[in-house]
Design brief:
There is one protein chain. The protein is elongated. α8 crosses α11 (about 185-195) and α10 (about 155-170) crosses α11. The protein starts with 11 loop residues before the first helix and ends with a helix. Mean pLDDT is about 90; it is low at about 90-100. It folds into two domains: about 10-105, no CATH class; about 110-214, no CATH class. It has helices at about 10-20, 30-40, 45-55, 60-70, 75-85, 90-95, 105, 120-130, 145-150, 155-170, 185-195, 200-210. It has about 210 residues and is mainly alpha-helical. It has twelve helices and no strands.
């Protein structure tokens, strides 16, 4: 993967701190720590994940990094605080004033205006479950919907509503009636991106995204 324009060599410290969190090692691609850091830095988690793998390589730079911080968590913490203060991490509005830095991946994690308890990421996970159920079971009382609601911290009622909109988007159901629903635009967009593709890839993506909520 090519170098990201917003990547700073000092960000190795932030990755190292995340790497050292128990259980120590490379964190799942969409783990909460990885996603939160990517949103803070405006750098996609895929890039940070690839960079984190490099922490296991034996190169002069990585070796020096480990020698300096491996057994000094307080020093690592202090230096990270300094980096955040200098670079404006966590204060992107001021630091990047006048610069458009928001990337597409960030919008996937933002609450929907039409339903703040949902995000595009949650809709992807809901769509994956949609393909496992039948229309008659797409109701709030269905155990799978209840379980998913607990995982992604969204009410089963809202999940069932989203599935109802996905049913409208599903060409195999041949819905000819018109639908006016606040979630239609977002669900239709997610359907066009993932609903007509390889179901195995959707299953894999949904499982990876669930890591964020665990």
């Amino acid at each position: 993967m090519a170098r990201h324009p917003l990547w700073n060599e000092e960000y190795w410290l932030l990755l190292l701190q995340l790497y050292q969190k128990k259980p120590m090692g490379v964190k799942p691609l969409y783990s909460k720590g990885m996603v939160d850091l990517s949103l803070e830095l405006h750098i996609p988690p895929e890039f940070l994940h690839e960079q984190m793998f490099k922490l296991r390589m034996v190169t002069p730079r990585i070796k020096r990094l480990w020698e300096k911080y491996a057994d000094k968590p307080q020093k690592l913490k202090r230096d990270i605080q300094r980096i955040r203060q200098m670079n404006g991490c966590g204060n992107a509005i001021q630091f990047f004033e006048g610069v458009e830095v928001k990337e597409t991946f960030e919008k996937n994690w933002e609450p929907l205006e039409s339903e703040p308890s949902l995000t595009r990421v949650k809709l992807i996970i809901i769509l994956e479950l949609y393909f496992q159920l039948t229309p008659i079971t797409m109701v709030p009382e269905t155990p799978e919907i209840i379980d998913l609601g607990k995982l992604i911290r969204t009410s089963p009622k809202v999940i069932a509503e989203a599935m109802g909109v996905f049913m409208y988007c599903d060409p195999y159901l041949n819905r000819e009636d018109m639908l006016i629903h606040p979630l239609l635009e977002a669900c239709n967009d997610i359907w066009h991106q993932y609903g007509n593709g390889n179901p195995d890839k959707l299953y894999q993506l949904a499982n990876e995204l669930k890591e964020y909520f665990k």
